[in-house]
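Lecture 7 notes: from sequence to structure.
We start with the chain below.
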Amino acid sequence: MLRKILIGVFALVVLIFCGIVALIFWGRNNIVVEALPAEDRKFIEAANQLEVLQLEPTKNVFSAKGFDGCHIVKTIAVTDPALRRQIISDLEHSLLPASSRMNCYEPHHGLRFKSGNTTGEYVICFKCCTVNGYVGGGQTLSLGVNPLWLKSDLDKVLGL
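Predicted structure tokens for the same chain:
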């Protein structure tokens, strides 16, 4: 009995190791992702400001200072161009088809891009793997999101 358990554990470890090695060598650029809509991509590239937000997921529809109805706990401006490019790249490479979402929608993270008088907001729930995007007040996307890289970078910026 113990031998069967050890063989099973060993097989699981080998499988996980192979998956990690494949991910490292295959790379994030080869993962099939949903494309960022052209309007969003154009807006993000033109934006001159990026903020990372920590959100309290309790909806507060009466708050004019909220972010998609959520209370803003912390806002950090991203001024480092390399970090900005990394976050944008992670967002682009993390999008998944909407059918992959679970829809609990308790967002704890947000991205706010500003270009002139126009604001773009991306509200992210890593619990149910959902991202909703709004540019200029209108919703531009509602997709799934893979938290593998994006969550780590946003948590670092927020000091979590």
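Points to note: The chain has a mean pLDDT of 79. The chain has two domains: 1-30, 33-158.
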